[in-house]
Amino acid sequence: MNITVIGTGYVGLVTGACFSEFGVQVTCVDKLQEKIEALQRGEIPIYEPGLDEIVARNVRGGRLSFTTDTAQAIDQALVIFLAVGTPAAEDGSTDLRFIEGVAREIGQSIDSYKVVVTKSTVPVGTSDKIRGWIQEELDRRGDKTRFSVASNPEFLREGAAIGDFMRPDRVVIGTDAGDDQAIAIMKDLYRPLYLNETPFVETNIHTAELSKYAANAFLATKISFINEISVLCESVGGDVQAIARAMGLDRRIGKKFLHAGPGFGGSCFPKDTQSAAHFARELGHEFAIVEASIRVNERQRKRMVEKVVDALDGDARGKTVAVLGLSFKPETDDIREAPALSIVRGLLDRGAKIRAYDPAAMPEAGRLIPEMRLCKDAYEALADAEVMVIVTEWNEFRMIDLARAKALMAESRMVDLRNIYDRERMAEAGFQYWGVGR
Question: All domains of the chain, ordered by start, with CATH?
Answer without folding.
Answer: 2-198 (3.40.50.720), 239-434 (3.40.50.720)
